[in-house]
Structure formats: C-alpha cells, structure tokens
Amino acid sequence: MITRNILILAFNDLATALKNKTFFLVLFIPLFVFFSMSFIDRFESDPGVVRIGLIQHHTYAPEIIKRVSAAKKFMELIWVQSETEGAQLLYKHKIDGLLTQSENKTSSLALLVLKKDSLKTLAIVQQFSALQKVAEGSGPDWISDITSLHQGGVQREILPTWVLLLVLLVGFIILPAQVADEKEKHLLLALLQTPIHEVQWLISKLILGMVLVFTAVLLLHLLGKFGPVNVVDYVALIAVGSYCFSAYGIFLGFLCRNQASARTLGVIFYLPHLLPAAMSDVSQKLTVVAPFLPSYQLYKPIQSILLDNGRISEMTFDLAYLFILGSLMLYFSYLLMKRRWLM
Amino acid sequence: MQLEIRNLGRLYDQGRGLSPTSFEIKSGELIAIVGHNGAGKSTLLKILANWIIPDSGTCTIDGVDLKNRTAVVGKIGFIPEVPNLFDAFSIEYNLGLFAKLTQTPTVRVEEILQEFDLIPFRKSKVQSLSKGMKQRVSIGRALLADPPVLLLDEPTSGLDFEMTREIYRVMGAMHGDRKTILFTSHRPEEIRNLATRILLLHQGHLIFDGTAQEYFRSSFHENLYA
Question: I need a surface site. Which of A188, B15, B93, B203 has the fewest CB within 10 A?
Fold first, then answer.
C-alpha cells in the first residue's frame, strides 16, 4: 500500500515533468554540454610563472638545476620531501609540475603534472626545451617522460563540473519550482485529501529528483563516451548526492509560496553552491572556501572517482555528510508540510 | 455521522480569520455558511478539510479527531472555490489518479464521468475547460470516495446561470443521498433555496445559527446586505 502510493505519486510527478517540459531541460543540458565541449579552446593565453617541485633526495644534473634556478622570471623551484608530498601539492595547486628521475633514462627527467592537456604543462615543456637549447644546443631532451595525475583529456576533466551542475540544477532549480507549484495551485492539499502520508509524498518527490539526475548524468556519459572505472561506486555516489540535493530542493520549495519565488530562491542557492566547488581546481582561495559547501562534498568525490579511479570506501565522511544533510532537509520539509506552511 | 466542533479557531494578522467557535452538525444537514468577505467562512471550511491547522479547539467526526488526518480523510470531501486539478492532464487522468490513491474501483470513475456528463470530455485537458466544467470535475473528484460530508467553498462563484443550476442540481442530489453538506455563499437565493440551516459569521464570530426561515425573518440578513 505504502509502496503503491509512492509509485503512483512518483509516476504522476514524472508525467508532470514531461508535460511541463522539465524532463527536456535535463536532456538538453547534456546535449548542450556535449556539443559545446567540442568547441573548447585547448589552452589559456598566459601561463604566468610555473612552479616546479623537486624532490630533496633525488640527484638532478647540476646543469639543469643551475639553468632552472636562473630562470626566475618563468620558473619557481619548490623543494619537497618525497614524491607523495609533491603529488599532494599538485592536487592542491601549490605546484604545477614535479620533476623526478626518469625510470628509463637515468640522465633525464620525468615530469609529473596534474593534467597533460594544460597550459601549465605546455609552458613547463617549452621552457625546459628553451633552457636546454641555451645550455647544450642540441641533444636528448631533459624531460623524457610526462605523466599526469588526472587521466584523460579536457572533456573528461570538465566532466565532474558538469555532473555537479546537473545535480544542483535538479536540486535547486527544478524541484523547488515543482514543489512550490503544487503548493501554489493547492495540488498538494488536494493530494492530502487522500489517504497518502506526508512521507510518501516526500519520497515521491525524491524519486523524481533522483530519476532526473540519473537520466541526465547517464546521457552525459553516453554522449561523451566517458565512463568511470568503478561504476558501482559512482552510481552509489550519484545516488547519495542526488538524494541530498533533491531533499535540499524540496525544502527550498517549502520555503516559498509560489513558483516564481522558488525559482528566484533556487538561483540564489544554485550559483554559490556551484561556482566555488567547480572552480576550486583553478583557485587556491576557493579551495579554502569550497569545503564549507555541501556541493564540494559531492564534487570532490565525483572528481576522485572519475579522474583518479577513487573508491567510495575512501569517501565515508563525504557520503555521511551528504546523507545526513539530505535527511535533515527532508525532516524540516516534513515539519513544514505538517504545519501546512505557506500553503 | 456527527461533526462536533469545539472552540475551533484560527486567527491571522489584524484579527482576521475564525475566533474560537463551537457547534454541532448532524447527518444529512445542508448548511450554508454566510458572512462578509473575511468573516472566517473559508477558514472554517479549510480547517475542516485539514487545509489549515487551527490555533485552538478540536473537531471530531464520529468521535475521531480531525488531527488524525488519515483516519478521517475518506469521510470529508472538499471542493475549493478555485478548482485544484492537474491542469496539464485530462479529466480522466485526474479522476483516475485520485481513484488510485483512494483505492476506489475504476468503475466509480466511469460512474462519475456519466453522472456529471463528462464522458464526451474525458480526454480533454483540464486547462482547456471552462470554470463550470472544472468545478464539475472538482465535485466529481471529491465524490470518488463517496464521503459522507462535503464542503463546498462558494461553489457557484463565477459560474453562468446554466452552470449554477447544474451545481444546484448536484448539491440537491447529494443532499438526497443523505450527505452532510456545508457550503459558503454570498447569494441569498442560493441560501434560501438550498440550505436547511444557516450559520452566520461576522468578524470571525458565529452570530447566528438557525433555519433558513428564521434567518430570513431576522434582521441579520438585512443587516448583512444593507
């Protein structure tokens, strides 16, 4: 009986989403992303000073160190204790590349970078090439090997941002408007004239949000032909993330009397959640601020699973945070619903 | 079926709404609730329909408190002034959805469609219907679960003569089926022709409770429309 009511309400919500074209919105965005990403400029214009990490116990050729140290205008050297520390600094954007000894050629260097397809990587390679020409004329390249922490191209690296965008779009734009619309037109009150329980209605709205998120994310992956290595972990993460932000959106919908105010409130929440998290990769300041936002607790694990083949077992804090926040939002929505808040 | 209302009230800002009010309703009564705009008529109906949570008092239906929504939900049907239907869907979809949720057999949907002359329009989207047609669908939906009590908030507001007569016919038929009906109205002829009892609310207070004859003989009616 309970499941039956939830399914009836959920199908009604999905049918409404089809009727009011909401469903097409979540399909349009992955299509837009797919086509627009094919026009992405590969590189930015000015790389600035590149910061190179060197490992203290490694033996580098004195000529290389001398030349690199002299090129202060273009390069800054930062000494690190180990390769692990260097990788951490790379993730935190404190350095742009880490020079290690090449495993194949003892006389040359290996470069570890965050992304191969980045302006910083290109700048490092160009500047090393220029320094080598000045020092030696011709000869084997100083950098013989380049590896990146993030696997894949620009399109794959941007993918976590698009996934976050979709989850937040459903959570902060679509669901509050849908909830407020049902309140404004007294449809929710009409449904409460039937034996359904308030919790059943809330669960049906959660199902709507989660179905919309999964549809959009699936389409995004199908069009981009990118898939996570750890599929089960990824699905579980998206499920928890869409649960959290759908619940958040339902709560926002309950704070509004009508659809127009829900859209306004949704945008007010949407951008501050999206931008700091999505831009934390390119700004150290935002890397400090972003962890205070729930969106970052979703973005970071998505990035980890999609780009670094991370496992969900390493993200228990983020998952617990999202689940508890979502549950709290649902509980607050339930209280407002029981009080017939702004209905 | 008996409704007992004890000190039921809900006040809004500036003192509008319904002050604590008590009365009883017996089975089969057809009650008109009258009063100026803002007198508390709709607030009273909305409290009884569980649309509004009261500040004070209780209301029981056959001894069961209205706060126990799921226990009394099939006993009261509410038809608001503005029909609250899923506009983007057909009449049949709207009735079917609520039939499923109230676990009403599908055959009842057909009965309602037939009873309210909606069969030719069953596939029409609600948004394409006139207000009178929407009102008929709204009443039909409320009757799906066959509740013994019906609440109608200004059921003929904004309707033309023909539709108004149709609503009167429906209300008369429901009364004939021994249903208890409460409706709000501003139309004296509607009150005179339909109601067996009148409740007059003034600034949230119940100031008259009697038969239609008593009401029209008293000075309350004249004062109300003076």
Answer: B15
Q: Write out the residues of chain A at the interface with chain B, using a CB-CB cutoff of 8 A.
A: 5, 8-9, 12, 15-16, 19-20, 185-187, 189-197, 338-340, 343
Q: Is the ipTM of this complex over 0.90?
A: yes
Size of the A and B interface in Cβ pairs below 8 Å:
59
Instruction: List the beta strands (DSSP E) in B12-63.
Output: 17-25, 30-34, 56-61
Instruction: State how far Cα B79 lies from the chain centre.
Output: 5
> Which structural domains are found in chain A, ordered by start?
2-39+153-338 (no CATH), 50-148 (3.40.190)
The shortest CB-CB distance from B101 to any of A8, A20, A339 is to: A8
Chain-chain contact of B70 with A191 (C-beta, under 8 angstroms): no
Per-residue confidence in pLDDT tens, chain B, 226 aa:
889 999 999 999 888 899 999 999 999 999 999 999 999 999 999 999 999 999 999 999 999 999 999 899 999 999 999 999 999 999 999 999 999 999 999 999 999 999 999 999 999 999 999 999 999 999 999 999 999 999 999 999 988 898 899 899 999 999 999 999 999 999 998 999 999 999 999 999 999 999 999 999 988 887 776 6
Q: What is the CATH number of domain B3-85+148-224?
A: 3.40.50.300
Q: CA of B91 to nearest chain A CA: how many angstroms apart? A: 14
Domain boundaries, chain B: 3-85+148-224
